[in-house]
Specification:
This is Glycosyl transferase. Keywords: Transferase. Residues 6-153 form the Glycosyltransferase 2-like domain. Helix content is 36%, strand content 22%. The protein is of the alpha/beta class. It has one domain (5-238): Spore Coat Polysaccharide Biosynthesis Protein SpsA, Chain A (Alpha-Beta Complex), CATH 3.90.550. Strands 1, 2, 3, 4, 5, 6, 7, 8 and 9 form a 9-stranded mixed sheet that branches. Helix 1 links the parallel strand 1 and strand 2. Helix 6 packs parallel to helix 8 (211-238). The protein is globular. The N and C termini lie far apart (38 Å).
């Protein structure tokens, strides 16, 4: 039987949520479960209603994105987990291609390239992911900022549960914290250089409206993990991994 992939879409008053859901249910891979978690939404719920027969819909009190993603992972039944923000979209072959890569390479965590779109769905930056010459350069980048677009990530769902889920104490950088934890627990974070996600830039996105908080939380993450990452990089050099 084909592995099941659970796509978790956290949703809070987002006008683009129907586009995210449509892209999830349109996946070419046949064994997909779409879990939409309303984090206390009071707006745009009507955009979800047409999909009720094709998704698992969960409502909860507002607790932040991490709490919504965690709830979705708990309620999901898939072997693999993919996170899709309610303002982003997947290309139709996203799950099929990424899962194929992961199974071929024995990967428990993988991220990919992506395009950037605007509020009208126009692509303004193709293949926008940062590229790295080697694993050392990739890991070093973590010490100054998050190089991974969260909605390009797919993981073994059990991996997130083993690591204690996303940190709900971080309102904006819980994904950065999780990717750091994955790496520092010795899990190889694979990169598939294929553009499989459409990431939206718009005036309400957190990177714009709450930029100061993002920087504050990022500094906290650096304080928590950078010394361990430096030690891990030293270890990689010692064993000849560059």
């Amino acid at each position: 039987m084909l592995p099941k992939v659970s796509i978790v879409i956290p949703f809070y008053n987002c006008p683009y949520v129907d586009q995210a859901i449509q892209s999830a249910v349109n996946q070419t891979y046949p064994n997909v479960e779409v879990v939409v978690v309303s984090d206390g939404s009071t707006q745009h719920l009507g955009r979800v209603k047409p999909y009720m027969d094709r998704i698992k819909f969960i409502e909860k009190p507002n607790g932040g994105t991490a709490s919504a993603v965690n709830r979705g992972i708990v309620e999901a039944t898939g072997d693999y987990f993919a996170w899709l923000s309610s303002d982003d979209r997947f290309y139709p072959h996203k799950v099929e291609h990424q899962l194929s890569y992961m199974m071929t390479h024995g990967a428990r965590a993988c991220f990919t390239n992506y395009d950037r779109i605007d509020e009208k769905n126009q692509i303004f930056a193709h293949s926008a992911s940062m590229l790295f010459r080697n694993i050392t350069e990739f890991y070093t980048t973590f010490m100054s900022g998050d190089p991974i677009n969260g909605c390009t990530v797919m993981t073994d769902r059990s991996l997130i549960m083993e690591l204690g889920y996303f940190n709900q104490g971080l309102a904006l950088t819980h994904d950065y914290d999780m990717w750091y934890r994955i790496i520092l627990n010795g899990v190889d974070f694979h990169f598939l250089n294929e553009t499989l996600t459409l990431h939206r830039t718009h005036s309400r996105m957190r990177e714009i409206t709450r930029a100061g908080e993002v920087l504050h939380e990022s500094a906290m993450i650096h304080g928590a993990y950078n010394a361990r990452m430096a030690a891990y990089l030293h270890h990689l050099h010692q064993i000849g991994v560059y």
